[in-house]
Amino acid sequence: MAIAKAERLMNLALCLLGTRRPLSKRELRGSIEAYLEAGSDDAFNRMFERDKDDLRELGLVIETVESLDGDTGYLARRDSNRLPPITLDAEEAAALGLAAKVWQQARLAGAASGALQKLRAAGMPEAEDAYEVHSALEPRIPVHEAAFEPLMLACRDRRPVTFDYRKANAARPEQRQVEPWTLECWRGHWYLAGWDRDRGAERVFRLSRITGRVRSRAGTFTAEVPDVVTVRETVESWAGETATRTALIRLRTGAGYPLRSRAISVRELGDGWDELEIPYGHGLDAWLVEFGPDVVVREPADLRADVVDRLRAVAQD
User: Fold this and answer.
1) Fewer CB atoms < 10 Å away: N or C end of the chain?
2) CA 97, CA 120: separation in Å to the nearest integer?
3) pTM exceeds cut of 0.70
4) Are the beta carbons of 8 and 31 closer than 8 angstroms?
């Protein structure tokens, strides 16, 4: 349904931009197949008015012109809908080039490259790419999960979804009904933040734990979508970014560099082990499990128990 509406809006926009004189409703209905299929004049009028309002919200300037005989016509003059010249300096061009590189492994790679080519064709300066010439590092956002694209589209279109999700400490996945808000990449992993209908609360889901296919559902959102900043804070908090206390862990020498980078203190224990004091926030247990036998939790006791439970769940697989 979303694709059909997008096609209808595109056809209406092309008709209004391609005419040199105002077109009446009757002429527009005869030119667009979706309008011809409308069951009645009332259905067509409602559809047309919604489409016209949607195009105006998207920024298309549509003029309403009344002819001498009293008929109303519509058109979108090209000079009124032409963007001003795009002028970018070398630093702005470099920033856009860097942003396009970030998405080269993701679903948006084609769109990012295409947009960059159009800007260059329009006169955007060719900036020297410091990341390509002088550095072995390249900024990328890896996207390997099959759930990324359908969830990205669902977030954009505000469509509820269902999927099977397996928590880190669960033996089997369970179905979740979610109103998706946004996707966030944090420490190389993608997370979905949204409203869990079954639990009646805000939840965050790691995409790598979604099993099977993401299925769209009809209907509208039942919960208010919060501010984007709030959603990002939720993702960071769930993933362990917001620390409320500290934890003491043993870490094998030469391992766990991400943990070492966050350590408040490091003490050599000998025999190939170090002791680290690190910030402890919600989600730290899931992160520690990823380091397997290279990490041993000393304290607090509740963190140690959570890590043991997760490791047992993995071992039962």
Assistant:
1) C
2) 10
3) no
4) no
